[in-house]
Amino acid sequence: MSKRIDVQNLNVYYGDFLAVEDVNMEVEPRSITALIGPSGCGKSTFLRTLNRMHEVIPGARVEGKALLDGEDLYGASVDPVLVRRHVGMVFQRPNPFPTMSISENVLAGVRLNSKKISKSDAEGIVEQSLRGANLWNEVKDRLDRPGSSLSGGQQQRLCIARAIAVKPDVLLMDEPCSALDPISTLAIEDLMHELKSQYTIVIVTHNMQQAARVSDRTAFFNIAGTGKPGKLIEIDDTS
Ligand code: ADP
Ligand code: ADP
């Protein structure tokens, strides 16, 4: 289910170092927001706070709020493990489990969530997720091959299939095309347009053209302490 993100007065620190300053941002369900800004301005850091991955980084801490459909992600009663399972993340370098089969890669997150899945349910999830990631036709005859047997672009779509298999509320993508060739990049961009009908998507990109092509809105970040310190300085409607 696609949820609304509402970030309020968010600061992120690594120890004493302020990496993200006073970000306020709303992201509507079933929309794509692109984050753009110079290297080191805190885009990845910010993205990680949206699924509480910052908590696995020594010294990292946040101030402020991030609400998912009104529920505070950092609330005392909210389990960070559950957050990570409901807010999917796709990284710059495709990271399928290399020796695990294609189908087991898709199921990896699902198996963490539910103790037992029947064989037929598992097959259904694999097919649905791979179709959702526009990868089914390319891999349906070799679901038992290892994830590492795929091309880079296919591996990235496999990672997207793994992320959507758990039916997340939000899909975060940190430069998902930076390690890919132009054709694979276009395939991922097309896929993002399709995924938008079901998910709230936030993508980090260093590519202005890509931001314009894929996103409904573009949020510009700046480096903390540079006049317009480290925050969202503008939101454009590019749709
Ligand atoms: P971007 O994604 O925009 O390139 P990052 O979020 O990676 O920016 O980094 C923002 C700032 O925080 C940079 O100055 C970076 O050096 C610093 N930083 C990133 N990760 C860590 C970390 N684990 N510990 C300390 N500082 C970090
Ligand atoms: P960059 O360092 O250029 O931002 P990536 O976006 O590929 O490169 O990776 C960002 C960080 O996320 C790296 O520190 C990497 O180790 C970490 N990372 C990659 N995959 C995972 C994962 N599945 N779970 C947790 N951390 C990951």
TrEMBL record:
<dbReference type="InterPro" id="IPR005670">
    <property type="entry name" value="PstB-like"/>
</dbReference>
<dbReference type="GO" id="GO:0005524">
    <property type="term" value="F:ATP binding"/>
</dbReference>
<dbReference type="InterPro" id="IPR003439">
    <property type="entry name" value="ABC_transporter-like_ATP-bd"/>
</dbReference>
<feature type="domain" description="ABC transporter">
    <location>
        <begin position="5"/>
        <end position="239"/>
    </location>
</feature>
<keyword id="KW-0813">Transport</keyword>
<keyword id="KW-0547">Nucleotide-binding</keyword>
<keyword id="KW-0067">ATP-binding</keyword>
<dbReference type="InterPro" id="IPR017871">
    <property type="entry name" value="ABC_transporter-like_CS"/>
</dbReference>
<dbReference type="InterPro" id="IPR003593">
    <property type="entry name" value="AAA+_ATPase"/>
</dbReference>
<dbReference type="InterPro" id="IPR027417">
    <property type="entry name" value="P-loop_NTPase"/>
</dbReference>
<dbReference type="Pfam" id="PF00005">
    <property type="entry name" value="ABC_tran"/>
</dbReference>
<protein>
    <submittedName>
        <fullName>Phosphate ABC transporter ATP-binding protein PstB</fullName>
    </submittedName>
</protein>
<keyword id="KW-1278">Translocase</keyword>
